[in-house]
Amino acid sequence: MSALTAPGFPEPEIRARARRGTAEVFPDPASYGAELFGPGAAHAGGDALDRARIAPPVFMPERLEKLIDLAREPEPGDVDLTTRTGGFSASLPLYLSAFGSTRAGSGDLAVHASRQAGRLGIPMVIGENMVPVHGYRRGGEATRSALLDRVDAYLGAAPEGVGGIVVQQSTEDADSEVWNLLYSDPATRPLLESGRLAFELKIGQGAKPGLGGMTVVAGAEAEQLADRFTVAEVFGEEDDRRLRCATPGTFTEEILRQQLRFMRNNFPRARTWVKFHPGRDIGDAARVAWAAGADAVTVDGAEGGTGWAPRVFLDQVGLPLSECLRRIGRPGGCLLTSGGVWEGGRVLRALALGARAAGLGRAALIAVDEDPGHGLERLVESIALELRLLVSALGKYAVTALDREDLWWPDGPFDERASLAPGQAAAGAAA
After folding, report:
1. Is there a contact between 291 and 283 (Cβ–Cβ < 8 Å)?
2. CA 353 to CA 339: how far, in whole Å?
3. Would you call 341 helix, strand, or coil by DSSP?
4. Which of 29, 68, 111, 201 is buried deepest, with most CB atoms within 10 A?
5. At what angle do helices 344-352 and 375-393 cross, to 10 degrees?
6. For residues 340 and 305, is the Cβ–Cβ distance under 8 A?
7. By CB neighbour count within 10 A (0-12 exposed, 13-18 middle, 19+ buried), where does 150 fall?
8. pTM (predicted TM-score)
9. What is the DSSP letter of 262?
C-alpha cells in the first residue's frame, strides 16, 4: 500500500476503481437477484415529501356533513379508500409496481405478489423485457410463460370487476410484439371483456433515468441474448458474468403523441398508460401524455425502482418525487406515483398533491419475501389503516377529497420552495 493519501477524497473507492476498473461502476454482480437496489445515501432524507407535515384543521365542516349523513359521529372506518386508477376500479389508492425480467420479476416471488395483489383488488403492473428474455407461450400450452404465470395468478384471485393488469412495453418488447401477443391471446380475453387490461409505454424509471434496463447474466445466457440486447463485459475477464443492457428508446413530444395514437387505434379495448422517469421536464411530458389521451401517467421518483443500476445513477441522477409533483402541478388526468412508498403517511402526501394512487415496489418484494402467502396483504392492510386514521383526522372521508391544504411545508410554500434543502428557504426569504 502506498503512503500517498488524499484528504477529503473517498480514497477506498478510488483504490477499488484502480484495482477493478469498470466493475466498480456497478454493485457487486454476485448481489444481483439476492438484494434489492434503489437510492443510496445521497437521497436519504433529501425528499421534501417526507418533510411535509400532515395538518388537520380545527373546524371540520365535512365531518359535520358525514355526521348528519350517518346520524352518528363518523369514525376512521367510514373513510372510503376506493378510487379509479388509470381506468380501473380499485379497492385502495395503491398498485403493485412493475417487476420486469429479473429473477424477482419472473420467479416465484412475483407470482406470489401477483396473487396477493389480485386478492387485494389493486392494479398490478408487469414490467419490461419479460418476453424477449423468457419467451412467450400462448394460453393453453403445456409450458407457461413467466408473464402468463403472473396473469393467471392475479386473475385467479381478483374479485370480479376490481383491479386490472398493466403490461409494459420497451423497445425490445416492441420488437417481440408483446402487446399484439397479449391482445390476441385467449388467455387475456377475460381481462379485455371486463375492461381490466392496460398497456404501459415505458419511457423511463426512477432507478436509472435515461437508461434502459440492466441485468446480470451468466456467460451462456449472454450468448443466447446477444442478438436481442447489448451484452458487455464489465466485471473483469476472470468473471463469467455479463451486463445485459436494454435501450431506453428515443422520444420527442411528437413521437410520444404518435405512440399513444398507435396504442389507442390498435388496442382499443385496452387502457393506455405511460411511465416517465423523474426528468427535469416531467411537467411538460405529463401534460403532453394527458392531452394525447393517456388514461394514466406514472411518475417514478428518484427514490423509486428495484432496478440493479450503476451506483452513480442510484445516488445522483433524477429528481426526487416531491420535485416531480411540484413541476407537474395540478394534474390534467390520472397521475400515479412511485418511489420510497411503504407506509401510509407518504401515500397520503402523494395523494394530497394530486396522485390518484401510489405504487409499491421494493416494499412489496420485501413483504412477499417475508411471507409468500400473505406478506403483501398484511403490508397493504397496515397502510390502509394508517390512511383511514389520517384522512379521518383531516376531517375528510374519501381519499379523493385530499388536497394541498392538508399539508404544511417547513421549507415554505410547496409551489415555491418545496425543492429546496432545509435552511435554503429561510436564507432566500432573508435575502
Report:
1. no
2. 15
3. coil
4. 201
5. 50
6. no
7. buried
8. 0.84
9. H
Q: Which secondary structure element, helix H or strand E, spans residue 424, and what is its range?
A: helix 424-430
Q: Which amino acid is at 267?
A: F
Residues 191, 192, 196, 201: is their CA dihedral positive or negative? Answer: positive
Let me know: does 273 contact 175? Beta carbons within 8 Å. Answer: no
Asked if 92 contacts 119 with a C-beta cutoff of 8 angstroms, the reply is: no
pLDDT in tens, 25-73: 667 776 655 555 555 444 444 578 988 999 999 999 999 999 999 999 9
Question: And the C-alpha cell for 410?
Answer: 417547513
Distance CA 8, CA 266 (A): 57
CA distance 9 to 59: 54
Give the N- to C-terminal CA distance of the chain in Å, as an integer.
Answer: 50
pLDDT digits (tens, 9 = 90+) for 10-26: 667 656 765 776 676 66
- Output the CA–CA distances (angstroms, integers) from residue 413 to 47, 410, 418, in the order listed: 15, 8, 7
Sequential DSSP letters for 169-237: E-HHHHHTTHHHHHHH-GGGHHHHHTT-EEEEEE---TTSTT---EEEE-HHHHHHHTTTSEEE--S-T
- Whether the CA torsion 139, 142, 147, 148 is positive or negative: it is positive
Name the residue among 93, 105, 85, 95 with its Cα closest to residue 36. Answer: 105
Enclosing H/E stretch for 359: strand 357-360
Cβ atoms of residues 333 and 298 within 8 Å: no
Q: Which three cell numbers stand for residue 417?
A: 420552495
Q: What are phi and psi of 294, to 5 degrees?
A: -65, 135
- Cα angle 165, 167, 169 (rounded to 5 degrees) comes to 170
Coil, helix or strand at residue 248: coil
Residue holding cell 463469467? 240
> Taking the CA of residue 41 as centre, how many other CA atoms within 13 Å lie in the half-sphere pointing to its CB?
0
Which domains are present in the chain?
A: 76-204+250-413 (3.20.20.70), 214-247 (no CATH)
DSSP, residue by residue, 267-314: -TTSEEEEEE---TTHHHHHHHHHHTT-SEEEEE-TT-------HHHH
